[in-house]
Amino acid sequence: QVQLVESGGGSVQAGGSLRLSCAVSRFTDCMAWFRQATGKEREGVASIFIDRTTNYADSVKGRFTISKDSAKNTLYLQMNNMKPEDTAMYYCAATTGWVAWGLRLLEGMYNYWGQGTQVTVSS
């Protein structure tokens, strides 16, 4: 079992920054951040593999950075130059085992989820 607890959400104006944190009971091979806006499906935002390779959704490339601190058992998502379309509930997710790079932003690949943290970006 893996426990995940997100924090750091809040309200910010367009162009601003937020850093989300996810406290994890243990790191797994593949960790990711997802988000779900009201009325939309959950989508993958960023992932990080055990070898620290990362990938990002096109909509956040160059603005968001995923990282992890093994000493603190914490996964991060640094969000810069935020836009109103970034408004969503953000979830931390984890899965064990190897996941092909092209599949690491797919919801079905993950079997552990946090409760989410709300992010609101105003224009």
Structure description:
The strands form 2 sheets. Strands 2, 4, 5, 6, 9, 10 and 11 form a 7-stranded mixed sheet that branches. This protein is 0% helix and 49% strand. It has strands at 4-7, 10-13, 18-24, 30-36, 43-49, 54-56, 64-69, 74-79, 88-95, 112-113, 117-122. It contains no helices and 11 strands. It is globular. Strand 4 and strand 5 form a beta hairpin. The mean pLDDT is 96. It starts with a strand and ends with a strand. The chain has 123 residues and is mostly beta strands.
Helix content: under 10%
Q: What is the element string, with H for helices and E for strands?
A: EEEEEEEEEEE
Which percent band covers the strand fraction? Answer: over 45%
The SS-based structural class is mainly beta
Note the total helix count: 0
Distance between the termini: 40 Å
Shape: globular
Mean pLDDT: 96
- Beta strand count: 11
Low-confidence stretches: none
Rounded to the nearest angstrom, the radius of gyration is 13 Å
